Amino acid sequence: MHIPVIYPTMNTAFSSLYCTKSRFASVATVRGTRRLAPRLRSSPSPLRSPLLARHISTKSTEGIARDRSNNGTRVKYVLFLSTAATLSWFLYAQQQGAVRLDSDKKYSTHPDPLAPKNGIQDAQKKTPKSLDDLDLPIEKAILTTAPNVPPPITRDYPVLLDVDLTTVSKLEQLTNQYKYEKWTFNNSVPGPFIRARVGDVLNLRITNHDESGMPHNIDCHAFVGPGGGSALTTVNEGETKTARFKLPNPGLYIYHCAVGPVGVHIANGMYGLLYVQPEQDLPAVDKEYYVMQSEFYHEPPEADDDGQMSSTVEFSWPHALREAADVVVFNGSEAALTEKPLKASLDDTVRIFFGNGGPNFTSSFHVIGTCFSKVYRDSDVLSPPAQCVQTVSVPAGGSTIVDMKMVVPGTYTIVDHAIFRLEKGAKGFLNVSGEPRPSLYYSAQPPQPCEGCKLHP
Ligand SMILES: [Cu+2]
């Protein structure tokens, strides 16, 4: 038999294949190499065997004429067998995942932002083994500060959406009278508005720059899993963490800090909104705004060294426990929506993405002088909207989306219709420009607001 002749032939073919496969691995994946290499190395190489080497040597020097006359046929036969064996082995190995071709589309074509930059092998070790969507294209999220909303997402495919949130403490005006040290995401209360699309994976990077030494994190109501992401994102001062969350459910969701005592972190300003667009977004409107209600609890001001009452007030645990809010505001301060009103033009449809950070109150959200032409109750964007709604109940930790058709010009006042909260700062304005429309709103007498009126400037 001439098996010894087959061995070196197959060995050459295997060696060639191994080199070829290694070249694939070096540019594509190391997984195949790891799985394949031990099998190849553990098989004794026929060329290295002294016995087989002798066989080859003897054969090559005998020079038997009969064998020579059959050489052509034998060589063809051997080549055929070795090629068939090699091909069978190769197909088997590829099915087992040991070999990958450039034509395979299984390996990532997009860089992984979490992967270390010191080589493919390290990246393979440290890349998460879940969230199968690592092949998603990467997109940097547009983040906006209230009352602004990022533009609608027009793409029709999911992405890995990169979001950076940084926690910072910041002393700023709370009411027209008092300053307050707010705990913020990205230097603003509420935190930035994040716009994503259903099916996206949020690549959330949180950094703690709070010099007070307080840890912070993110609990987002759009994240599915225990704690809403909080345990994966808790960062101490100077620390950065990254976690990924798939967004399977469309709607408008609150995010907030959930470090204990959670009420204090929320009461100091750590919340914001994430809008997960449905596959087919809501009908386009003329203006979109971001408004968030929340309440603050503070002690009375203390006397400064000069005997004057301080212009800064501090958090009150007893007031918070009693749910006796001292301040109720939109967008983080009494003046946020009065000094800088929302704006629209006559006949515009205005959409408000409205969230309630709480920490305790339910809002009776209302805009004086109009009704909500559409309400996506509790931010349910999959069901048909309610229509012609005067006041919407929005619980702490909840949200709503309302549309208003502005058919008469003038100033509209945004309130919580639990109306004594107006005295605590819950007020904003929406200015609608345009010519009067007497066909809808008319009197022969000029308007005469009541004296000291806080509702109708
Ligand atoms: Cu916090």
UniProtKB/TrEMBL annotation:
<dbReference type="InterPro" id="IPR001287">
    <property type="entry name" value="NO2-reductase_Cu"/>
</dbReference>
<keyword id="KW-0560">Oxidoreductase</keyword>
<feature type="binding site" description="type 1 copper site">
    <location>
        <position position="257"/>
    </location>
    <ligand>
        <name>Cu cation</name>
    </ligand>
</feature>
<feature type="domain" description="Plastocyanin-like">
    <location>
        <begin position="178"/>
        <end position="280"/>
    </location>
</feature>
<comment type="subunit">
    <text>Homotrimer.</text>
</comment>
<feature type="binding site" description="type 1 copper site">
    <location>
        <position position="270"/>
    </location>
    <ligand>
        <name>Cu cation</name>
    </ligand>
</feature>
<dbReference type="InterPro" id="IPR011707">
    <property type="entry name" value="Cu-oxidase-like_N"/>
</dbReference>
<dbReference type="Pfam" id="PF07732">
    <property type="entry name" value="Cu-oxidase_3"/>
</dbReference>
<dbReference type="InterPro" id="IPR045087">
    <property type="entry name" value="Cu-oxidase_fam"/>
</dbReference>
<feature type="binding site" description="type 1 copper site">
    <location>
        <position position="256"/>
    </location>
    <ligand>
        <name>Cu cation</name>
    </ligand>
</feature>
<comment type="similarity">
    <text>Belongs to the multicopper oxidase family.</text>
</comment>
<dbReference type="InterPro" id="IPR008972">
    <property type="entry name" value="Cupredoxin"/>
</dbReference>
<feature type="binding site" description="type 1 copper site">
    <location>
        <position position="417"/>
    </location>
    <ligand>
        <name>Cu cation</name>
    </ligand>
</feature>
<feature type="binding site" description="type 1 copper site">
    <location>
        <position position="221"/>
    </location>
    <ligand>
        <name>Cu cation</name>
    </ligand>
</feature>
<protein>
    <recommendedName>
        <fullName>Copper-containing nitrite reductase</fullName>
        <ecNumber>1.7.2.1</ecNumber>
    </recommendedName>
</protein>
<dbReference type="GO" id="GO:0050421">
    <property type="term" value="F:nitrite reductase (NO-forming) activity"/>
</dbReference>
<keyword id="KW-0186">Copper</keyword>
<feature type="binding site" description="type 1 copper site">
    <location>
        <position position="216"/>
    </location>
    <ligand>
        <name>Cu cation</name>
    </ligand>
</feature>
<keyword id="KW-0479">Metal-binding</keyword>
<keyword id="KW-0677">Repeat</keyword>
<feature type="binding site" description="type 1 copper site">
    <location>
        <position position="265"/>
    </location>
    <ligand>
        <name>Cu cation</name>
    </ligand>
</feature>
<dbReference type="GO" id="GO:0005507">
    <property type="term" value="F:copper ion binding"/>
</dbReference>
